[in-house]
Amino acid sequence: MINATLLKAALIAGWFALMAGLERVRPAAPRPSPHRLARIVHNGAFWAQGALINPLLTMPISLWAASAALWERPEALTGIGGLILDLILLDLWIYIWHRLNHVTPILWRFHETHHLDEFLDATSAVRFHPGELILSAGARTAIILLAAVPISSVLVFETLVLASTIFHHSNLRLPGGLERALRVFIVTPSHHWVHHHARRADTDSNYATILTVWDRLFGTLSATARTPDMPIGVQGASERRFAALMARPFRRAI
Ligand SMILES: [Zn+2]
After folding, report:
1. How wide is the angle at C-alpha 162 spanned by C-alphas 160 and 163, nearest 5°?
2. What's the CA-to-centroid distance between 113 and ligand 1, angstroms?
């Protein structure tokens, strides 16, 4: 378990370094000059909080849920076939959970922190309010219990989600043909940047995390194409101060 967690951390660190390097060599959008350092520091602080919550809360309750599953899996649902089914199920779950975060006011209060980033790059992938991480861990417990998901599948899924999230938030400009081909199957930067467009209709679309099929299946695919000058953020809202971002979900009215 510890070895698997260390392997996951090493893979993700390498992938993050690759994406953070490539997005500087081939940027899709010009990086705004004001508040550049403060943004990176704030996203780093959100990452540090998440790096504590994962081993202290998310993994222990996932381990408990996997060991307390409500039924025992038949032989046919184990091995590589079972893993693939688990990954599809968990990706569908994260699509539904992400969509709930947008349409449920109490959940949006926490998820808004992620969307208040006014530019996107690999660091945006780790910018989540600790409240959202805790709520998300709790919601995922239910799926692990109900579907008897083994902890090995949870770990593989977490690694894929992080890799995908770092990739699709990045400012990497892929060759047009490659981007269009990948987008048929997986979430790419052009797909996810539209989700961060500071226009509510686009913010409430393109919810997928790994597979784009969910947005097509459930009618949430935006027709908007990403442009380099597309404003990123939340329509009608802005907050750059870290303490205010932390306190914002608990304010009486926003
Ligand atoms: Zn969102």
Report:
1. 65
2. 10
What is the distance between the alpha carbons of residues 206 and 187, in angstroms, rounded to a whole number? Answer: 9
Measured CA to CA, the distance from residue 120 to residue 168 in angstroms comes to 9
Give 70 Cα–ligand 1 centroid separation in angstroms: 31
pTM: 0.93
- What does the DSSP 8-state code read for residue 175? -
The tens digit of pLDDT for each residue in 12-65 reads 999 999 999 999 999 999 988 777 889 999 999 999 999 999 999 999 999 999
- Cα 217 vs. chain centroid, distance in angstroms? 20
Euclidean distance between CA atoms 231 and 115, whole angstroms: 12
Q: How far is the CA of 42 from the centre of ligand 1 (A)?
A: 18
Tell the residue number behind the tokens 């091995």, with chain if given.
79
Task: Say how many CA atoms lie within 13 Å of 24 toward its Cβ.
Answer: 6
